[in-house]
Sequence to fold (105 residues):
Amino acid sequence: MASNLHVKKGDTVEVISGKDKKAKGKVLKSLPKDGKVIVEGVNKMKKHTKGTQKDPKGGIIEKEAPIASSNVLLYCPSCKKGVRYGQKIEGDKKVRVCKKCGKEL
Ligand SMILES: [Zn+2]
Fold:
């Protein structure tokens, strides 16, 4: 699965701009084609749902909407903030390292 985004599903990221600036969350989904990501608890939109048999009235649910991937940075637990990272080769795999503290991310 090719992904050209700097963050991927399962990463913890920090939002660096927009209405949820400084929010932290897990990437629920990455959308490389759109250059967007869906981050847990970030950019929640209210959505009206139609009634179903179970819930005839319907209601309002809150759901995360995608945000531009350029608005998030990978979160470094050591620096306690979103950081840029570099890559290094370790054995036969690539690891991501924090550019600030050098910790593997
Ligand atoms: Zn760091």
Observations:
- Strands lie at 12-15, 24-31, 36-39, 44-49, 59-64, 67-68, 72-76, 81-83, 85-90, 93-98.
- Residues 12-49+61-98 form a domain with the SH3 type barrels. fold (CATH 2.30.30.30).
- The CA atoms of residues 49 and 58 lie 5 Å apart.
